[in-house]
Amino acid sequence: MNTPSHIILNLAILGRRSQPQWNPHIALGAFIPDAAMFVFYGWTRVIRDLPERQIWGTLYYDPTWQTIFDLWNSIPLALLGVATGLWLRRRRQTQMLGSAIALCCASIILHCLEDLPTHREDAHRHFWPLSNFRFESPISYWDPNHYGDIFAPIELAIVLLSSLYVFRLVRSRWGRGLLIAVNIFLCLGYLGFYF
User: Fold this and answer.
1) CA torsion angle for 96, 34, 78, 100 (degrees, to 10)?
2) pLDDT band for position 18 (cuts 50, 70, 90)
């Protein structure tokens, strides 16, 4: 799935209208597993000025980069974060911090679970460091050769419907404007990629 899709879906699943103060932590947790990918792309494309084919066809699969990506997509490490957050939440002076950490890490886990059925050769080792197993799904969220042309409009529809719900969760004009902008960006990106 695309990073904005993760953020919107995680807000729809974990967000509460009565507790909008937690939305940034949910959004951050949904973004964290893909953060290293943005750094990777910025370094290879912007700083080193490498061609897209080399970036995604070769460098993306470099073992060092794969380990970095897998570190941020690790369900066991995120579970450790949830446990740490819950432990901190039990203490009065760190209650808010603990809640924020637990919710952020829960959102990381949700991101990983959303990725499992939609990544093929770009699958992560979601159980690292306990296992090097990669679940390579028969479905790709983007590759038309592996049903990406079928899954992408389904993802887009789910995100657009979820956005209607998330719009009610977000109270600030800035947040609502950002949500609308992200949906427009996703629609234009879908049209540009598949048509």
Assistant:
1) 0
2) confident
User: Could you check whether the bond before residue 117 is cis, i.e. omega within 30 degrees of 0?
Assistant: no
Residues 6+ apart with CB under 8 A from 73: 33, 111, 112, 115, 124, 125, 126, 128
Which among 189, 165, 139 has a CA at the least distance from the CA of 8? 165
Structure confidence by residue, pLDDT tens digits, 47-66? 999 999 999 999 999 999 99
Is the CB of residue 186 less than 8 Å from the CB of residue 156? yes
Peptide bond between residue 129 and the one before it cis (omega within 30 degrees of 0): yes
What predicted TM-score, i.e. pTM, was given to this entire model? Answer: 0.91
What tokens were used for 184? 């427009």
Cβ atoms of 70 and 124 within 8 Å: the answer is yes
pLDDT digits (tens, 9 = 90+) for 107-156: 999 999 999 999 998 899 999 999 999 999 999 988 889 998 889 889 99
Query: Angle between the 95-115 and 23-41 helix axes, to the nearest 10 degrees?
Result: 50
The single residue listed with the structure tokens 């203490």 is 91
User: What is the per-residue burial (b if ≥16 Cβ within 10 Å, else e) of 62-78?
Assistant: eeebbeebbebbbbebb
